[in-house]
Structures are given as C-alpha cells and as structure tokens.
Design goal:
The complex is a heterodimer of chains A (163) and B (507).
Chain A lengths: L2 H27 L15 H23 L14 H25 L1 H15 L5 H22 L14
Helix pairs in contact in A: 1-2, 3-4, 4-5
Chain B lengths: L2 H12 L2 H19 L4 H9 L8 H18 L1 H7 L8 H12 L3 H34 L4 H12 L10 H14 L3 E2 L6 E2 L13 H9 L1 H9 L18 H22 L6 H15 L11 H17 L1 H7 L5 H12 L8 H4 L1 H33 L3 H20 L2 H19 L5 H24 L10 H39 L1
Antiparallel strand pairs in B: 1-2
Helix pairs in contact in B: 1-18, 2-3, 2-4, 2-18, 3-4, 3-10, 3-16, 4-14, 4-16, 4-18, 5-6, 5-7, 6-7, 6-14, 7-12, 7-14, 7-15, 7-18, 8-21, 8-22, 9-21, 10-20, 11-19, 11-20, 12-13, 12-14, 13-14, 19-20
Classes of the chains: A mainly alpha (163), B mainly alpha (507).
Chain lengths: 163, 507
Amino acid sequence: MNEKTLQMRLGLGACLMALFLVFVAIPNWVAAPSNVPNIILSPLFWPYTLSAFTGLVGLGLIATSMRLPVTDETLNDPIDDLGPARMRMIGIAVIMLVSMFLFPRLGMVWTCMLAFLATAFLVKTRHPVTAVICAILIPLILYAFFAHVAGVAVPQGNFVRLP
Amino acid sequence: MSFIDSIAAGLTLVGNIESFLALALGVIIGVIGGAIPGMSATMAVALTLPFTFAMQPITGILLLLGVYKGGIFGGSIPAILIKTPGTPASSATILDGFPMAEKGEAGRALGMALWASCTADLISNLSLILFAGWLASFALSFGPPEFFTLILFSLTIIAGVSGDSLLRGALSALLGLLLATIGLDLVYGTNRFTFGDPNMMGGLNFIAVLIGLFAIPEVIAMVWHPTAHLGKTRQLGSSWVSFADYKKSFKSIVRGSFIGVFLGSIPGIGAAPAAFLSYSEARRKSPDKENFGKGEVEGVAASEAGNNGVAGATLIPLLALGVPGDVITAIIIGAFMIHGLQPGPMMFVMNTSIIYGLFIGLIVSSVFLFIFGSLAIRGFKYVADVPKRILVPAVLILCVYGVFAVNNNIFDIGVMFAMGWVGYLMMRCHIPAAPFLIAFILGPLLEDNFRQSMLMSGSDPAVLIRGPITWFFWGATALTVFAIIRAGIRATKGLKSSTHEVDLSSE
C-alpha cells in the first residue's frame, strides 16, 4: 500500500466512523437526562463534537490524498512468507483469547507459562531450551514479587495453587 | 516553609538507602531498556511502573525517573553501534556516532555521548529546580477557564509528536479523546459507552491503555516478522574519549543543553527535535563543520546534549502545571496519581518535601548515570546478546502481570490486549500512537474544565477569555496552530517541487 492509498483509506475510515458515531453509537450508547438546561452541558455534547472533528479530519485526509502523487513505494516492508505470517497473527490472537479464558480457571502463573512457550515457538525461537527455562522462571519470579512483595492477589486458578 | 527547610524536608525523605537503591536500579533498567532497540525508554518506564505500586511514593517515582534518565542515554548505545536508535531521541546521534563506529571509534563516541548526557542532565535538573517553583506559584491563580485554555494549548503538542502527517496525528488524538469519553459522565453521572458493564463505568484503565499501545504492538510486530530485527553488533574499538574532546565540544554541549531545556519545558516538543536543533546549531558554529556527518565527535556531543537537556525540563510542566511534557512524563504522571498525588501547583504547597526530595534525587541521578552509563557501555555486548525472540514473550508476560497489578482486574488485561491490536493497526497505518495517549490523558481534564467553566458562568462562553492568563494561552494556541499550518503548507510545497524535479529528470 502506498502513501496515497493509505491516506485515502484512513480518510474514508474516519468519515465512516464519524457517521457511525453520530447516527448509531451516540444515540444508543450515551445516556443523557432530558432536563439539561444547556446543550453544552449535556453528556452528549462532547462525543458529538469529537465525532464532528473526526469527520472533518477524515475529509482532510481524503483531500490531501488526492493531492499526493501516485508512487510505487510501499509504506511497510514486504514480507516473504505472507501465508504463514497471517497464520502466526491468528496464532497470537488465539493465545490472547485463550489466556483471557484461562486466567481465572488455570491461574495466572500457569497460563503465563503456557502463553510464554506458545509465543516463543510462534516467533520461531532458536533457543527452545532457554525458552522453556524462561517460561517457567519468569512467571514464577513475577508471581513471587507481585504476590509476596507487592501484595497483589494474583489469580491462582482451580487446580494447582502456589504458596 | 523556607528554601533551607524545604531542602531539609526533601533530604529527610530521600536520605535513605531505599531511595538511592531505587534510583540506581532505575538508571540501570533505563540504560538497558534504552539500549535494546525496539524496547525504548517509554516501554521501559511503562513496564517498570507496576513495580512501583507497592513502594513508597517517593521511592517509586525516583525509580521511574531513574529509568527515564537512563533510557534517554541508553538509546544512544545502539544508535552508535548498530545504527538503530534505542529511542527516537537518539536519532540525531546516528549522524556522527555510527560513522565513528565504522572507523573503529565506537568507544570514543559512546564515551562522549555519556559525558555530554551527564552534563546536559545536570544543567536540565538545575533548570527544573530554578523554574518549576516559580511557574507553580504563578499557576496557583488558575481556575477552570485558565486550565481549559492551558490544556487546549497543551493539545497542540500533538503536532510535535505526529511524525510525518499532522492529520494522522490529529486522527490519533481524536481517537484518544473519544476513548476517554467511556465511563460515567462527570456532571450528570449517566453512562457513556459503558454497555452496562460495571468494569467500564470508571473509564478504561490508563495503564492498560498505555501498555497496550506501546508494548503489545512490538510483540505482535515480532510475530508478524520474527526475523526483522536480525543485525550485527559492532566492537567498541580501542580509542576512548579524552578530556581534550570534551573541552573542544564543551560549548556545543552547553548550547545543546539549553536548547533541550527550552524545548523540553514546552509540553510535547520532545527530545528528538531538541537533539536535531542542537546538532544543526553545533554544525553551524563549528570550525570543523565539514566533518559533521562523517564521524565528528562534537556532533555526537551536541545531539546527546540536546536530547538529555530535555529530560529534566519536561518535568517543569509536569510538576508545576500537572501537564505531561512528553509520553514518558505522561506515564510518570500516572505513577503520581496511583500514589494519590496530583502534580500541579498545589503539590508545591501540600507536598513540598516530595518535590524537594525529587529535586535531590534528580541531581543524584546524574552521578548514577555517569557510573552506570560507563559500565553499560562496556557491558552492552552482553545485553545485546539476549535473543529478541526470548525477550518478546518475556515482555508479554511482564505486561500481563503489570496491568493486572493495577486494579487486580483481569478485565484490564483484556483492555491491554485490545489496545495492543489497535496500536498495531495504527503502527501499520503509520498513525502515531503518542497523540492518542496524550489526548487520552488530557481529554477528561479538557472536558471537565470546560464544563466547570460553563457551570460557573451560567453557560456564558465569555468566561473562557476572562483574564490575561486565558488571553495568553489563546494567543499561544493561535500562534502554534498558525506555525503548524505554515509548516504544513511549506512541506507540501517542498514535496510538490521535489516531485516536479523528479518528473523532469525522468523525462
């Protein structure tokens, strides 16, 4: 994607977002009392103002994109393994989602150990043994610090509980 | 309380081994964090923040300030050795530092970077001590309209951190302002974008948002392209900086320090412009100007003095007005708030001992920076050897623990992950993240002060121009906006003419 295309897409995205906010999000998800004496004191005033500015910036982005020259220069470095890269992105998203599910059930320490290992192998570490050692030690050290020094109630889960 | 009494109170507060250890540890963490490309001083400060929750306020804040100071210097190490600035502020150091490394003078360049950094740091700290109190006493006469105009002016700092495109910076800031509207309304207590979830009624956690924006995108970027970081580390070489080098560069160091102090005291300008301005001034004034860019030690000194001169000065608006001078001080302001302290003019009245304790700690940090910076230069090779594909999962786990520790709430970890994807998308779309964060912090303050002004005046907008302070900030905002627009027009004209030249040459 070149600069011109990016600027145009961002502009269109900003305009669509402004329209969505004005016509859907704010009317449905912002509550305001009916007896507000002045519009500028209403809880709706600020979100509407910001939405209007977002629309204006979107129009500005579209206008500047039209003035930009068309070039072959891409903004982001190309990647050799596009398919596997996309799979890795899905992988990290799954790690995050599964971690969120496991934190209260398995406990933060064990979940973090699994997340560390999964991430290290996802980024194709060349040091698998070091990764395994770090995956065990780092969450344990952090648990020791946060639970016993900082007094944070780190979730322990339903299975193996740490002292 | 007299000046001597204040100093004594500050000394009582920081004159213990715990404070000095925190400061020393902070400098070490900062130097290492700044020296690891892709980690940056900002991320180092953000990752250290959760560890300060259990500490005494002064100890925690000193730890963060140590990380900040160390991080700014640490960024110069990879800038000189591998042409990769550890922090954006070190970009100017590459210009002469890397050519020196190529000539086998990396040790000399790093030594000069350290000496210039420590000198500038000291000058910057002294400026903070001299000016912050004066500015705070002036700010005591501020009411909601004055604060509204000040924060509006502060939002113009977004121009300084927007990078290539001001419009993208503005879009980022608007997204930050919109995100800040989540939660209960400040005046009527009604829900705004909470979707009935009690976790969202207090708004999104600031720490989760900032760690999500700055640290998680690096993890995702690593997953996208795991081998993008591979590069070479250079040797230090046998030559070392001499006193003659320092003497030769002294004028440039002092000039650069004051440039840094001046630009740092204006919220949002940041260290990178100060470093480049200092560098260009040194080149303009130097008798060896033709050597600049080819490995001139004075060039390294000037750029490092410029970026380190900013470090103390950014704390002037933070302590005196409660306005963050840059992204790192925006994180540090979070530490103040978590410890129940509100930076600003009242802090000089209510928490004098903490203010003077910080001043004393900052002076000591320059000494620690010199000691640990010298060691770091020699030890960097070992730090650089930490495989990035081990470092990145470790950062992810640190972020998880750190964000959870703020409120003991797993929901915050979800916010961090979500913001991480937002930050990554912004990174891919070249939308700067700094305006987002600054707007997210300043947004509620802006709205709150605006509505308070309207309430106290019976919705009369004239209250926003009620006195000289508001006139001053309106004028400053107008001038800054004018300068931004003019710079934008010039940049567009420059782009057009260069495109035209390219077209002609291709024909």
